[in-house]
Amino acid sequence: MQGMSITRRTALGAGLAIPFFPRARAQAAPVNVMLESEVVILDPHATTAAITRTFATHVFDTLFSMDGRGMIRPQMVEAWERSADGLAWSFRLRPGLRWHDGGEVTAADCVASLERWAPRDSLGRMLWAAKAELVAQDARSFRLTLTRPFPLVLEVLGKPNAPLPVMLPERLARIPVEQRIREPIGSGPFRFRATEWRPGNVMVLERFEAYVPREEPANFLAGGKRVHLPAVALKTLTDQTTGANALMAGEIDYMQYLPFDLLPRLERARGVRVIGLGGIHMFQGNFRINHAASPMDDPAIRRVLWRCADQASILTAIGVPPAYRAPACPAFFLCDAPLDSRAGAAEMAYDPAEAKRMLAATRYKGEKLVFMTTAGGISQTATEVMIQSMQQAGFQVEEQVMDWGTVLARRAKREGWHLFAVYANGTDMFSPLTHFYIANTCADYPGWDCDREVAALLTAFAEAGDPAERRRIAEAIQAAAAKHVPAVMWGQFTIPAGVRERLRDMPRAAYPMFWEARV
Fold first, then answer.
1. pTM
2. How many CB atoms lie within 10 A of CB 462?
């Protein structure tokens, strides 16, 4: 993300058929889509799960948002002002903002929402460490006062990473995150229709007729989100092959992640467009390590894992075609991205002979390592290739296969597991302040790693006003993380999406977005 040096800014320039959705209200059948998984957690402050973020970007709104160039733009905010000393920030909401239940969005709602969200987020905690006071001044205005300058206030409030800093009605924002909200009322361009929700089958998001988009064009998560579709039905299908066949048959209009083995058929299928994106819209795969579970509390043992991770073999086994992958990438903050660095790369190179030698020199005594993975698909394949390499080095490893919901529940416990495989959007991982396994060091976050050097560098990065200085600090973070090993990257790649040609003007992004789209 790029910094913004400002003293004052104002609003940008005039810049499978579903039987559950009544046609009388919608006036047209909904667009049917298959996302990466079913939406299970409806509380956007309660999880870093990408599927909840996708849900949140449609149902809720944020004070600021990121555009396609990584710049932070106003979203719910009409105007803002920063004092000369950088300690006082005043914000005024756009007029006409309404909740899905008809109530007006107020400054008090926003204050309560930020107070609920910030302690759950690594960037939020950094901002809150500098916060003196956050108060509503009137119905549309609120003020943030700091104890020390924090140059990245807008980047925090407009970050695209889960948990998103979305706004909630005050009555919902007063519910502790641990209890989770059960009534997802937002102010976004779509609203959740509880009466049409069939868990395990379909969730319907309906166009919110009272939504007032910004005047400027939509640009990634920023700008005027104009909704032309009456509704979007999120279908839960059994597997990717079923989804791909439904896409080719015209039974669904959009599929977020296409199976690699069916890409040749999909690229030839009549009426289907295959969309693959590069850069920060790629994915980074990681094996997250549980530092709280012995023997993974030993950095010497963790460093052996770098030598076991053969990115080329993993991506080949997954079936990622060369056109959809990056060469072996040692950069925590993504290759071919603004903070790409090769610091520590020599320590990360795959080398099976060196892995065996290094492990023999540690205190490892043959303890069994529990490696969690999801059944089928990309993560399980990546896991099984890694397990084979680890076993050849001398590790004893047990693969435990489960669904993603069970992984989320298990990873929240400090005992009972040592590693799990996951992959995340590049937009989550291209900055030290949002990278899940860098930004959450020394925090209560699954994996429980703590590197005090990295923590101090993160603070320095956030307080640096000069982009060149931030890049220097990011390189130091990369070098420290290579030794600390919060996670091990297993590849950078793109998973193409599939769109029926009848669904036009879909925004091109790694996130599914259904504003601007038309049929």
1. 0.80
2. 21
